[in-house]
Specification:
Layout lengths: L2 H21 L8 H32 L6 H22 L22 H33 L12 H27 L4 H30 L3 H27 L6 H21 L5
Helix pairs in contact: 1-4, 1-5, 1-6, 2-3, 2-5, 2-7, 2-8, 3-4, 3-7, 4-5, 4-6, 4-7, 5-6
Length: 281
Amino acid sequence: MSPYFLALLFSLPVVVVSLIGGWLPNVINFTHAKTQMFMAFVSGFMIGVAMLHLLPHGIEQIASFNDESAIQLGALCVVGGIVVMFATLRLLSFHDHEPVSTAGNSQVAARPGSATWLTVVAGLSVHTLVEGFAIGSSLGLEQGIDLDHHGEGGENMWPLTFAVVLAIVLHKPLDALAVVGIMKHAGIKKKVLWLTNVGFALICPVGALLVLFFLREVLHDYEYVLGFVLAVISGAFLCIALADLLPEAFRHRHDRFKIFLAFICGILLIFLFGLFTPEVH
């Protein structure tokens, strides 16, 4: 099976949930408490993916050619991923994952200008591109092991990619909701909202195809690079969870136990996923 077809196949769920997330502000009113619980759950899941899957695989790949400094290099890449993603989230404008509502609210702030919603869209687009890189690089690792060896151990294929995709799928609707919500609040026409939602959803498969093409066609012998890429992306996932999702989930005092329990459940889910799925070696 073509690796590029696989990249599109694994990106398809992300595209679908992103489109749904951008459509939801028009039909559903989310409760504040449920939104915060969901963000806490996704935060725990993303931290688990980063620390229990991406980073161990990254260090393992780095150790295959530099065993002595693998942990130090992996940790350095994690810090680099955190810095890059934090710059994306903060320098390209903070965004709130909760939908913007203007109906019957006398305390709603003035509508955001074009510079505001453009920076939000730009920041989340870079954010989504990194997620596409995560899918492409994790798939590249597993293809380098399984497909290049003509399907040996075929039962071990794709658990890492599946975990990455699931982490992205769980929180991608929130990003699309934020993009469409703030544009709608700014008074953007429905046609532009629809086109933006579609374009935003397609960024992830484009990123997956780009990184897979670069790894396989440009670098050719790319296995040694994947360790650094996976470690950087683990840092990006940690930053998304710790600097973006969790602060929003815990910024109020209500339902503190429920929100914390949702966070623990997210970590527990990816831990159990690791126990019951085969590792890629």
